[in-house]
Amino acid sequence: MKSFLSFIKTAEKFEDCYKVKEKIIEGAEKLFFQYGVRSVSMDDVARELSMSKKTLYQYFTNKDELVTEVALFSIEKEKNQFDGLNEEAENAINELFLISACIKETVKNMNPSLIYDLRKYHPNGWEVFQNFKYEFIKGTVNENLKRGKAEGFYRKEIHCDVISTLRVETIQMVFDGAFANIQDITFTDIQLQVFDHFVHGLLTEKGLKQYQLYQKREEVKQ
After folding, report:
1. Which site from 101, 117, 122, 162 is most exposed, i.e. has the minimal number of CB atoms within 10 Å?
2. Angle at 128 (CA atoms; ends 122, 131), nearest 5 degrees
3. Is pLDDT at 2 greater than 60 in this prediction?
């Protein structure tokens, strides 16, 4: 009986620790997305959570470890958002619109410097993002391209590996500041312009008609 009660107490303590750690990760994610990674200190995170820095360091050895954990946490949320879109979508073009909506929701709350900060100052977090980009995002786009070709919406001559690589690189190109000198458009709208250009390069005549149909549906929603 004693050992069972000890097990219960240990489990409860573990759960409490898990909740505190998750709270720290969520608070840090909010700050990183709003201000970028470099400009947010461990003091800022502790202040945001009304927590002592000593408590913060009980869960994370340093800022780099926290950044890596935040990257893993954010990416897992992204994967959950994408999960099931393939089955939910009426066809490949509809799936692209659903994927675009997920990306738009993420990007609109993201400081453009976040990706740059990861790459320059936090190699472990950057590696997490790179794996997500080349394994999950590229893989999702690749499967969509195959589906679109099979449905007759995308051009047959498209090389799926080449075009899916192009897509993930153009997404990052926006974050890398390639359009920083263009002042009359929002960061989110730049992503949408790049997306629209990308899709038009895929479409057959049949695909273009379907794409325009979904565009009209989106306009009605707005």
Report:
1. 162
2. 135
3. no
- For 130, the 3-state DSSP assignment is helix
Where is 7: in which H helix or E strand?
helix 2-35
> From CA 144, how far away is CA 136, in angstroms rounded?
12
Return d(Cα 198, Cα 130) in angstroms, integer.
21
C-alpha–C-alpha distance, residues 104 and 174, integer Å: 13
Question: Do residues 112 and 191 touch, judged by C-beta distance below 8 A?
Answer: no
The Cα–Cα gap between 33 and 107 comes to: 9
**What distance in Å separates the CA atoms of residue 109 and residue 137, rounded to the nearest whole number?**
19
Q: Is residue 157 predicted with pLDDT exceeding 90?
A: yes
Tokens representing residue 191 in the block: 């992503």
Given a contact cutoff of 8 angstroms between Cβ atoms, the answer to whether 175 and 116 are in contact is: yes
* CB count in 10 Å sphere of residue 45: 23
